[in-house]
Amino acid sequence: MKLATIQWEGQTRAAVQVSEGYLPLNARDLSELLSDGAWKQQLETALAAYAHNDAVPADAIEVLNPLPRPAKVICCGLNYSEHILEMGRELPEHPTLFAKYADTLTGPDAQIISRHSQHVDWEAELAVVVGERLADATPEEAAAAIAGYTVANDVSMRDWQRRTLQWFQGKAFDASTPIGPVIATADEVDPEAGLEVICRINGEEVQRGNTKTLVFSAARLVAYISQFTTLQPGDLILTGTPGGVGMGMEPPRFLQDGDVLETEIPGIGTLTNKISIRVAAESAA
Amino acid sequence: MKLATIQWEGQTRAAVQVSEGYLPLNARDLSELLSDGAWKQQLETALAAYAHNDAVPADAIEVLNPLPRPAKVICCGLNYSEHILEMGRELPEHPTLFAKYADTLTGPDAQIISRHSQHVDWEAELAVVVGERLADATPEEAAAAIAGYTVANDVSMRDWQRRTLQWFQGKAFDASTPIGPVIATADEVDPEAGLEVICRINGEEVQRGNTKTLVFSAARLVAYISQFTTLQPGDLILTGTPGGVGMGMEPPRFLQDGDVLETEIPGIGTLTNKISIRVAAESAA
After folding, report:
1. Backbone angles phi, psi at B58, to 5 degrees
2. Of A19, A112, B38, B192, which has the most beta carbons under 10 Å away?
3. How many CB atoms lie within 10 A of CB B282?
4. Is there a contact between B92 and A230 if contact means CB atoms under 8 Å apart?
5. Is there a contact between A160 and B99 if contact means CB atoms under 8 Å apart?
6. In chain B, what is the greatest distance between 2 CA atoms, to the nearest angstrom?
7. Residue A166 CB: number of other CB atoms within 10 A?
C-alpha cells in the first residue's frame, strides 16, 4: 500500500492510495496515524469498507509532506559501497550518523528556498519510516518494525556543512529536505532486493544508485540506532546517498536559482522541487 | 527568578522558587509554561497573588528535568577560548554545532545508566533556554529572547563519539544529559559578566571555566542558529565545555560505576548524578 498525507477540502488528512484516488483515513496526517498503535487495523478496516465512491480523485487533493512531525530524523552518511570503494576508501565498521529535526523536512512538491547559501547540493536517498517503538532491537526486530519507505533528498548547504567538522548546520536548514510523495508500506518494496535511487536536475540524471549496495541495510541501521536512542512510530531514518553529488564534481556544481530537482525511487515515487536562491549580499559565501 | 518542574502530590507542575519553597504554576512543566506566549504575565500574576501559605515546602516535592519536551536541543563544541588557546588551536570563525533530542535529557538528580559504553566522559556546560520564537535574529534580538539559563552536563560516550567523524551517536544516548535543577531567568544571571562552570567527580574538582571566556556568547549562538532553523520557546542551546574532560587526561579517565558526577554553576544550581555502568560482555568496548 501507499500512504500519503493530503490536503483535501481545506484540511490535511492521512490517506491510502486506491485505484480511484485516495481514501482518507481518520488521522490528520501520517505522523498521527502511525502514532496510533492500531494503525494497521485502521488501514485494513478502511480498505475493507472501501466503496468506489469513497475515494477522492487525485486531482481534488494536494500531496503534502507525509510525515510532518517525526520526533527524530536520523541520517546516515557514506553508506553506498560502490561509491565508497570508487573513492578508494575502506568500508566503514560503523554507520556515520547525524541528526535533523522535523522542521528540516518539506513537501514532495515544495519550493526549496536558500537564503544563506549558494552552495546547495543534492543527495537522493531512501528513507525508512519506523512503525513501532524500538529500543535495543536486533536487526530482525528492526526489520519487523519498519512501517515503510519513502523518498528523500538530503539537500545540503556545503559551505555551512564545511564550516566546522560537524555536518549538522549544513544539513538542518528549515524546509530543506523534501520527503514523499508517499510511504510505500514494507510489504510493497524491498530495499535489500534493490531499489534504484535517482536524482535529476532539469531532467539531466546526476545520481543513480541501488539500495542493494547499502553497507548498512535499513534494518541494520534501525537496529544500530535503537541501541542508543528509543525510536518511535513515525521516526524517519535516511539511509545515505550514492555517488554523483555536486560537491564531488570537477569543478564542484551546485543548484542554481530556478533549477528543478527531481528525486525518484521507482516503486515509491518522485519528488519535484524547484530551487530558489535568495541570498542577500551580506550572506553570500 | 528561578523556575523548576516539580513532582508534587503525584503530578508534575511548573513552579517558581519563593522563600518558603515552590509556588506551583498553571502548567504541567516548564516546556508547557514557555510555550504559552504569556508565560511572563502568568508568572507575575502568580507572584502578585502569592501568600505564604500558597508555597509548597521544598521537602514536599521532587525537582525534575525542567524542560522535558524541547523541540530542539542544539549543542556547541570548542567554545572556551582559554581551553582552545591552551590546546594550541586558533579561535574558530564559526561555532561547531551538533544535535540532541528531548529523549537525551534527564533530571538533575537522575542516575545515568550506561549500557553500551565504558568510556563515559563529562562536559559541564551552561545551557540557554529560548523564550520566544526566533528566526534570522540579530544578536540583540536573540539576547532579548533568552528566557533564562540552566546547568547541563553533555555526558559523552567517547568510544561511540569516535567511531565516525560525526559526534552525534556518542552524544545522543537516551537519558544521558542531565539538566536543571532550575532555570534562572535572564534577569537573574549574566553569562557575559561571568558564571563559573564547575564539574566534580566524587567531590574532586575536574573542570572549572568561566562563561566570560566563551568564544560565542549565548546571544551570538542563538542568533547564529536562528539563521538556519527557527527556534521556539523551550528550545535548549548548550554552550560548550571548558577544559578538563577525561578524554584529554593522560591516561584518559572515564566515569566509573558508582561515581557521583556533580555539575555546578553558582547562581543557578548543582546537578548530582550517580553513574551506573551496566555494559554486557558483548557490548564492551
Report:
1. -60, -30
2. A112
3. 5
4. no
5. no
6. 58
7. 23
pLDDT score of B285: 40
Matching residue, cell 548548550? B238
CATH entry 3.90.850.10 includes domain B73-283:
yes
pLDDT lower than 70: segments of chain B: 281-285
pLDDT digits (tens, 9 = 90+) for B89-117: 889 999 999 999 999 999 999 999 999 99
From A92's Cα to the closest Cα of chain B, the distance in A is 9
Give the Cβ contact number of residue A143 at 10 Å.
17
The size of chain B, in residues, is 285
Best mutation target among A73, A159, A166 (most B Cβ atoms within 10 Å) is A166
Q: What are the b/e assignments for B33-54, b being 16+ CB within 10 Å?
A: bbeeeebeebbeebeeeeeeee
C-alpha–C-alpha distance, residues A29 and B42, integer Å: 33
Measured in angstroms, the CA of B173 and the nearest CA of chain A are apart by 5
ipTM above 0.90, yes or no: yes
Residues on chain A touching B229 (C-beta within 8 angstroms):
101, 103-104, 172-174
Cross-chain Cβ contact B98/A93 below 8 Å: no
- Number of inter-chain CB pairs under 8 A, A vs B: 96
DSSP type of residue B263 = E
Residue B87: its pLDDT value, please? 73
Domain boundaries, chain B: 2-64, 73-283
Q: Find, in chain B, the residue whose alpha carbon is nearest to that of A230.
A: B174
Out of B157, B160, B230, whose CB is closest to A103? B230
Residues 6 or more apart whose Cβ sits within 8 Å of residue B149: B126, B127, B128, B129, B183, B184, B186, B189, B191, B195, B218, B265, B268
Cβ <8 Å between B71 and A229: no
- Compute the distance between CA of residue A6 and CA of residue A13 in angstroms, rounded to an integer: 5
Strands in A154-252 per DSSP E:
156-157, 177-185, 196-201, 204-210, 236-238
Would you give the distance in Å from CA A86 to the centre of its chain?
25
All residues at 6 or more sequence positions from A206 whose CB lies less than 8 Å from its CB, including other chains: A122, A199, A200, A244, A245, A246
What pairing do the DSSP bridges indicate for beta strands B236-238 and A236-238? unpaired
Whole-number Å distance between alpha carbons of B35 and B55? 24
Model pLDDT, residue B37:
87
> Is-contact A108 A62, C-beta < 8 A?
no
